[in-house]
From TrEMBL:
Residues 354-435 form the ACT domain. GO terms for biological process: methionine biosynthetic process; threonine biosynthetic process. Belongs to the homoserine dehydrogenase family. It comes from Eilatimonas milleporae. This is Homoserine dehydrogenase. Pfam families: ACT, Homoserine_dh, NAD_binding_3. Its EC number is 1.1.1.3. It comes from the Bacteria. L-homoserine binds at E195. Pathway: Amino-acid biosynthesis; L-methionine biosynthesis via de novo pathway; L-homoserine from L-aspartate: step 3/3; Amino-acid biosynthesis; L-threonine biosynthesis; L-threonine from L-aspartate: step 3/5. The lineage of its organism: Bacteria, Pseudomonadati, Pseudomonadota, Alphaproteobacteria, Kordiimonadales. Transmembrane segments: none annotated. NADPH binds at K110. The active site is at K210.
Length: 438
């Protein structure tokens, strides 16, 4: 490839799934990228852990750095792309070194941006260095660009996201095939949809990282993982998926960020969403984000949130922006103007709830349950008693009107103390759609 003096010269750290995909895009679509960027984009140096690994790509034209941080110091590297991963360690060291030198930094690393986004943005702004992280949330879906640029003339009321393909794949198969969580997880691991250690995905931590980043962009605050309590999908049972469907809902793991009169609420939990809502239609490994904003109203973004092609596509878009000279504060507002919003604690959450109890099949049990709810101050929207549960007793399934989470927690505690309640009750939150600001 001819390299012109104005080429944007890259150093790429990390040559795994995403790094390999990026090298392929840059090599295979060089002319297209150059036409769009207005200058050529070339790779000058790369780094990974094991130099000799066969990656199915020819790395011989590029310089090699054993230590990824050395990429930042190379005179013929203008921009560094970090595709290693991890919230600290080499990824953070490389970000600091690159931005500290006033060079552009692109990453797909949600853990890094969720933990250090505000300080890295400040460093980038101080040194006039672009910092981009489109691939960090929802892979191939340009949702960061949507929040930072496309919706810049709006006030965001709230956003809901299906941000983890592994969880969505598991929930979809549980529903479609009536399988238990453990069985689908084992199959997902066999098929490569879930990691050998799936904790980050199924316990909601990955979704929490992404939610913290989206909340920062939507509401002009620093990403704050501590403000995102998270629950995963391990406890979702097929019976709850069936009852959700009977009640007109589907269960999805949601990342939620919304502004209320009391402050900013950021949460991750499995929730029942109405069957007719956009998020309920998103199946398999797909991701989606619904954003409600004023004056635009509701916008919906859907696509693949992971994988070589979709993720590398988002990284390539960031690189093209840098080659074009597009700037602006990485988090949408200058780092010095990021706000520290009042964060609504978990127990103050107001919403609707589903509860399932396995109880003895005898007179008086329903009265105990309704008395517990009344004592906690929770009002019932619907109450169903179902035939025999698999493991003895019967199921009582109820949904509430709007209630405060602390009151629902109190009701659940009361239920656990009842002799007639045969196992710890299940609670799942019921969501509508994000609301545009009043
Ligand atoms: N995979 C996806 O679908 C996806 C989607 C969205 C975002 N992301 C993000 O993209 C980033 C990369 O993910 P990935 O899936 O491509 O990871 P991966 O396949 O595990 O690749 C990681 C790469 O980093 C290299 N590496 C690890 N430690 C290193 C060190 N100390 N020094 C130099 N290189 C080191 C590895 O080298 P070796 O190859 O020599 O071991 C490997 O090439 C992560 O931040 C991830 O969260 C990934």
């Amino acid at each position: 490839m001819t390299e012109t003096p104005s080429s944007l010269r890259l150093g790429i750290a990390g040559l795994g799934t995403v790094g390999r995909g990026l090298v392929r895009i840059i090599e295979d679509m060089a002319d297209l990228l150059s036409a769009r960027a207005g200058r050529r984009i070339v790779i000058r140096a790369v780094s990974a852990r094991t130099r000799k690994r066969d990656r199915g790509i020819d790395l011989s034209p590029y310089a090699w750095c054993d230590n990824p941080v050395d990429l930042a110091a190379l005179d013929d590297v203008d921009a560094v792309v970090e595709l290693i991963g991890g919230g600290d360690g080499p990824a953070l060291a490389l970000a600091r070194e690159t931005l500290g030198r006033g060079k552009a930094f692109v990453t797909a690393n949600k853990a890094l941006i969720a933990a250090h986004g505000a300080t890295l943005a400040a460093l980038a702004e101080k040194n006039g260095a672009p910092l981009r992280f489109e691939a960090a949330v929802a892979g191939g879906i340009p949702v960061i660009k949507a929040l930072r640029e496309g919706l810049a003339g709006n006030r965001v009321g709230g956003l809901y996201g299906i941000l983890n393909g592994t969880c969505n794949y598991i929930l979809t198969r549980m529903e479609e095939e009536g399988l238990a969580f453990d069985d689908v997880l084992a199959d997902a691991q066999r098929l490569g949809y879930a990691e050998a250690d799936p904790t980050f995905d199924i316990d909601g931590i990955d979704t929490a990282h992404k939610t913290a980043i989206l909340a920062a962009l939507a509401f002009g605050c620093a990403p704050d993982m501590d403000a995102v309590p998270c629950e995963g999908i391990r406890s979702i049972a097929p019976v709850d998926i069936d009852y959700a469907s009977e009640l007109g809902y589907r269960i999805k793991l949601l990342g939620i960020a919304r502004k209320t009169a009391k402050g900013l609420e950021t949460r991750v939990y499995p929730a029942m969403v109405p069957l007719a809502s956009p998020l309920a239609q998103v199946g398999g490994a797909l991701n989606a984000v619904v954003i409600a904003a004023d004056p635009v109203g509701q916008t919906v973004y859907e696509g693949f949130g992971a994988g070589e092609g979709p993720t590398a596509s988002a990284v390539a878009a960031d690189i093209i922006d840098i080659a074009r000279g597009l700037g602006g504060p990485p988090l949408g507002v200058p780092a010095a103007r990021l706000e520290t919003p009042v964060s609504i604690p978990r127990e103050a959450h107001e919403g609707r709830f589903y509860m399932r109890l396995r109880v003895e099949d005898r007179p008086g049990v329903m009265a105990d349950i309704t008395a517990g709810l009344a004592r906690a101050g929770v009002s019932i929207e619907s109450l169903l008693q179902r035939g025999a549960a698999l493991n003895g007793g019967v199921y009582v399934v109820l949904t509430t009107h709007m209630a405060v989470e602390a009151a629902v927690a109190e009701a659940l505690t009361l239920f656990r103390q009842l002799d007639s309640v045969l196992e710890s009750p299940t609670m799942i939150r019921v969501e509508g759609e994000p609301e545009t600001p009043a």
